[in-house]
Amino acid sequence: MEACYKITRRCLEVCLVVNNPAMVVTKGFLVVRDADLLAK
Questions:
Q1: How many domains does the chain have?
Q2: Which pTM value belongs to this model?
Q3: CB neighbours of 20 closer than 8 A, spacing ≥ 6?
């Protein structure tokens, strides 16, 4: 479901826009997809 809807990525994009810090703790491999946003 996450791979299809990209909910985490969208949440991270919103956090970036409003300058809200975010942290992700996961064992999943999909976090690699969002690495560019997490690096900002």
A1: 1
A2: 0.81
A3: 14
Domain coverage including residue 22: 2-39
**CA nearest neighbour of 22 among 3, 40, 2, 4:** 40
pLDDT, residue 14, reads: 97
pLDDT digits (tens, 9 = 90+) for 6-33: 999 999 999 999 999 999 999 989 899 9
Distance CA 27, CA 16 (A): 23
Q: Are 25 and 4 in contact (CB under 8 A)?
A: no
CA distance 34 to 12: 8
d(CA 30, CA 20): 21
